């Protein structure tokens, strides 16, 4: 059995960590490198850095920020934001990323996922799926959650797996920043459709939210609940271990 992972996420804008609710009302939450180092010290298994303004500004995630974060870490680092080519991904890998995450570019150019997987290996490619409930299902939103692609999230997850992604980062936009718990119906639907690892994102508020998510998903992502100081990674993992979850502590 593989250990379940707790991943700390840093949404970055203009070189600073930000956090909001349902992808809006973003507030400054500090230095990316300092936050990343603190979460590693708390026991995070991985760090994700997402440049939330890169795609809309039509640029690549800031390589300088990636280098600063990578230099502070000894755990895996995933970076997303504005990746549109093999060259963009290579630049981030050279800056210290272990994985790259794509959302908008993957939807607009699915062949890029296949190219990245072929060039760098599936294990280094993550497709991020920002999902919002539409009727009985969920649609994929791009451009930092501002544009409805019209794609169904579950169908897109299956397609992305076929293109060669090694992991899916599934975020509920409806739950993002609300601390009301992960969208379990969304996670169950995606996990049932694919074989690659699924990372749960959006809505964590208490330790038991992580326990529930990890009954379905392979990893769970935390952001605002960590930035606020309400919980630490260590507290989450201790709770999970006491509840019988297989986590590294």
Short description:
The protein is α/β, with parallel strands linked by helices and 249 residues long. The chain has a single domain (5-242), classed as TIM Barrel (Alpha-Beta Barrel), CATH 3.20.20. Helices cover 36% and strands 29% of the residues.
Q: Can you walk me through this structure?
A:
- This protein has a single domain, classed as TIM Barrel.
- The chain is an alpha/beta fold.
- Helix 1 (32-42) runs parallel beside helix 2 and helix 6 (153-163) packs parallel to helix 7.
- It has helices spanning 32-42, 63-71, 86-95, 104-108, 110-120, 153-163, 184-193, 207-214, 224-227, 233-242; strands at 5-13, 16-21, 24-30, 46-51, 77-80, 99-102, 125-134, 137-142, 147-152, 167-172, 198-201, 219-222.
- It has ten helices and twelve strands.
- It is globular.
Low-confidence stretches: none
Question: What helical percentage do the residues reach?
Answer: 25-40%
Structural class: alpha/beta
Widest β-sheet, arrangement of strands: 1-4-5-6-7-10-11-12
When the domains are counted, the total is 1
> What Rg is obtained from the alpha carbons, in whole angstroms?
16 Å
Query: How much of the residues is beta strand, in percent?
Result: 25-35%
Global geometry: globular
> Whole-number average pLDDT?
92
Individual helix count? 10
The CATH class name reads Alpha Beta
Q: How many DSSP E strands?
A: 12
CATH architecture label: Alpha-Beta Barrel
How far apart the termini lie comes to: 16 Å
What fold name goes in the CATH topology slot? TIM Barrel
Largest sheet: 8 strands, parallel, barrel
The CATH superfamily name is Aldolase class I
Order of helices and strands: EEEHEHEHEHHEEEHEHEHEHH
